């Protein structure tokens, strides 16, 4: 008996080769956008620590407009246009 | 017919079922092995090409080709004539307002409910009467399960992995009903939502399991019961608005109709009366999410302001289904976070 796999294929993405060193780079932090104020405190503190203890030149924070939806493309483009590295996080 | 899915050769039916369990290709129940001939029959019942892409099922982003939808529909036990309904339901779930990515990953228990309308519901023997949310009917059971298997195999909706639903609900096995149009005094649900009378359609709405409401007697008594059940502080609708579903049984619908109530009038009444005091919502809103969903006209500084459960009356959906007894059902939505109702016409090429 021959049967077929039910699992979906996925598109292949090519990861860009980037220099992952933090020195002198701009880091983007994207707050998932969950309502709790703790998230704002968390991201602000992370920004302070990165600036104080790493040799990054800048840490910018964005917030997703709706925490249950993926980031809109314009936000992704904006983050990518100014950041060498980006971290998306949730704090609850 | 040329397939692109990985073929697997097995000795017999039991070996096929065990293989699907071993590979994590099924939802915890046995399946019908998707042999090439069964998959081909499923695809031929639609007017689509096997390699046509409907979209990607989030969050894993498996590509939903007609072939993959057919494989999963065979596994669920669908008859080929059900397949256009499955396709339309997938198209509906993938509309941005449904936010399937969020539905698949939320900690809330919401599950996409498929509501079938039009002549096809009777022709294919969908249950719209006694026990409408329950078991016993192949059409409801297998169309609902096909959706589940598609969300599982293409979207990766596996509990504890990307599916973070805290307790989930039994609709995750299968969640499909039809409206009892021939016993309803009102316009069918899909027609209210813009589909031409006589056409077939599915609506997908992500919601909680049905909550029973003892809802009997006069219109005044029934409305009081519904208002109380809709406006409980723990509901996502109360804290984050969005949409909700009220399922009236045909007897209740006729009682409302006899006393001159239309569906829009019931919606307005429920919207005006099913409210919670703003200060009481704030007291329980430890996550601090309510403010994000209240429109500007909500008096946010007034603790005594009565906040409605939805932003507007039309976000309270009313469907007629079930047996003719004393009970109604409520299926609260996920709130303003997504899972909103989307209706799609069913494209059929064959008479059923």
Question: Which features does this protein show?
Answer:
heterodimer; A: 92 residues; alpha/beta; three-stranded parallel beta sheet; B: 352 residues; alpha+beta; four-stranded mixed beta sheet
Structure characterization notes:
The complex is a heterodimer of chains A (92) and B (352). Chain A has 92 residues and is α/β, with parallel strands linked by helices. Chain A has helices at residues 37-53, 73-82; strands spanning 2-4, 26-31, 58-63, 85-89. Chain A has a domain at 26-89. In chain A, 18% of the residues are buried. In chain B, helix 2 packs across helix 3, helix 3 packs across helix 7 and helix 9 crosses helix 12 (263-273). Chain B has 352 residues and is an alpha+beta fold. Chain B has a 4-stranded mixed sheet. In chain B, strands 7-12-8-11 form a 4-stranded mixed sheet. The radius of gyration of chain B is 21 Å and the shape is globular. In chain B, a hairpin with a 4-residue loop joins strand 2 (53-57) and strand 3. The interface between A and B is medium-sized, with 21 and 49 residues.
Element-level helix/strand string of chain B: EHHEEHHHEHHEHEEHHEHHEHHEEEE
Strand order of the largest sheet of chain B: 5-4-6-13
What Rg of chain A, in angstroms, do the CA atoms define?
17 Å
* Main sheet record of chain B: 4 strands, mixed
| Uncertain spans of chain A | none
Amount of beta strand of chain B:
15-25%
Instruction: Name the pair of protein chains with the most residues at their interface, and give those residue counts.
Output: A-B, 21 and 49 residues
Number of helices of chain A: 2
Number of helices of chain B: 14
Outline of chain A, from the CA principal axes? extended
Distance between the termini of chain B: 23 Å
Percent of residues in helices of chain A comes to: 25-40%
Helix/strand structural class of chain B = alpha+beta
The succession of helices and strands of chain A, N to C, reads EEHEHE
Described by the principal axes of the CA atoms, the overall outline of chain B is globular
Whole-number average pLDDT of chain B?
97
> Helicity level of chain B, as a percent range?
25-40%
Q: Any idea what the radius of gyration of chain B is?
A: 21 Å
List the domain count of chain B as a whole number: 1
**N/C terminus separation of chain A:** 50 Å
How many β strands of chain A by DSSP? 4
């Amino acid at each position: 008996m021959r049967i077929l796999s039910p699992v979906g294929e996925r598109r292949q993405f090519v990861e860009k080769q980037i220099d992952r060193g933090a020195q002198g780079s701009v880091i983007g932090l994207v707050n998932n956008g969950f309502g709790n104020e703790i998230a704002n405190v968390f991201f602000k503190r992370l920004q302070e620590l990165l600036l104080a203890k790493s040799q990054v030149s800048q840490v910018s924070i964005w917030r997703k407009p709706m925490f249950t939806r993926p980031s809109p493309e314009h936000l992704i483009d904006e983050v990518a246009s100014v950041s060498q590295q980006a971290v998306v996080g949730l704090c609850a | 017919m040329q397939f692109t899915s990985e073929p697997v050769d097995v000795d017999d039916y039991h070996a096929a079922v065990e293989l699907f369990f071993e590979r994590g290709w099924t939802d915890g129940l046995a399946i019908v092995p998707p042999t090439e001939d069964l998959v081909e029959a499923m695809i031929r019942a639609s007017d689509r090409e096997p390699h046509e892409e409907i979209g990607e099922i989030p969050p894993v982003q498996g590509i939903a080709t007609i072939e993959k939808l057919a494989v999963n529909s065979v596994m669920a036990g669908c008859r080929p004539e059900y397949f256009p309904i499955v396709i339309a339901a997938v198209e509906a779930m993938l509309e941005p307002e449904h936010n399937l990515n969020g539905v698949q990953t939320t900690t809330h228990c919401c599950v996409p409910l498929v509501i079938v309308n039009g002549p096809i519901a009777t022709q294919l023997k969908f249950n719209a009467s006694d026990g409408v949310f329950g078991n016993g009917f192949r059409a409801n059971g297998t169309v609902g399960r096909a959706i589940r298997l598609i969300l599982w195999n293409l979207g990766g909706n596996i509990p504890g992995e990307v599916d973070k639903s805290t307790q989930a609900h039994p609709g995750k096995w299968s969640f499909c009903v039809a409206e009892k149009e021939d016993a309803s005094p009102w316009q069918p649900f899909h027609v209210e939502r813009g589909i031409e009378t006589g056409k077939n359609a599915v609506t997908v709405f992500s919601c909680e399991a049905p909550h029973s409401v003892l809802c009997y007697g006069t219109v005044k008594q029934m409305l009081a019961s519904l208002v109380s059940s809709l406006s409980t502080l723990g509901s996502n609708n109360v804290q984050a608005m969005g949409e909700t579903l009220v399922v009236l049984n045909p007897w209740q619908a006729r009682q409302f109709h006899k006393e001159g109530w239309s569906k829009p009038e019931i919606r307005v009444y429920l919207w005006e009366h099913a409210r919670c005091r703003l200060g009481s919502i704030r007291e329980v809103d430890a996550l601090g999410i309510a403010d994000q969903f209240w429109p500007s006209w909500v008096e946010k500084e007034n603790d005594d302001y009565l906040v409605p459960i939805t932003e507007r009356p039309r976000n309270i959906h009313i469907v007629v289904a079930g047996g003719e007894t004393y009970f109604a059902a409520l299926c609260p939505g996920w709130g303003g976070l997504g899972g909103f109702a989307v209706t799609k016409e069913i494209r059929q090429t064959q008479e059923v």
